[in-house]
């Protein structure tokens, strides 16, 4: 167990700040910048060159831009100076590299809290979770985190991103296509799943940092809302004013898709496994932890998430 007592998270370093979920986390932290002493990001030279406007916008907000390589020992050590909290939002493809980032944070004179890139499925939901292929790298990271003697952690476990699941991209794995007015529902459409909008992921991470005592060495199970596919479909139909065409993917079909994807080395394999985990109830808890960080009444609703999905899917038609 880490030796340090709970301490305020005031000087933050974000790694992966301009990525898929990192940009939402960074935005939420910046919106609460008055409550922190310092916000910095560690980013690559390529990002600075390729995302000029995004970097300039962050500078205008007072964010310190530290240019370096997260795989370079010296760059990371330098970035950790005058930082007490590291918030990682690295992508799944480099999840395991956090082991070294954690080791260096544990050795740091100033860093006392580390938020690993967890935002998603609970990788320790049940004993069976240890055997799920998509969880293996995150489990290694958690083991490294728990072995530290000088570093606290917070795992922000959000479940699947509503922004992605309430769209057409997952096809037969479950999807909602606003343009075609078509939906693919899992099983009979009545399986419950808890979702978090990516905007809320940012807000929930920020609130966890602002409540260091209750989030210390804890996996926070937080989310925006819980709904069945049928409830989501009904909300889409109400907001679009149309009846949609519905098809179904049975659990048997889903498991077959999953097995074939892993056998063939298909990119969709991870998504198929995660879909099956969610369908089996892997996002459901007796009680969520939103109240611990004062997030119970500030998260998006199903109605909010569907409205945003409609907005995003119809944007390209305007």
TrEMBL record:
Native source organism of the sequence: Exophiala viscosa
Protein name: Isoflavone reductase
InterPro entries per record: NAD(P)-bd_dom_sf, NmrA-like, NmrA/Isoflavone_reductase-like
MF (Gene Ontology): oxidoreductase activity
Domain of life: Eukaryota
Membrane-traversing stretches: 12-30
SUPFAM superfamilies assigned: NAD(P)-binding Rossmann-fold domains
NmrA-like domain ranges (all copies): 10-257
Keywords: Membrane, NADP, Oxidoreductase, Transmembrane, Transmembrane helix
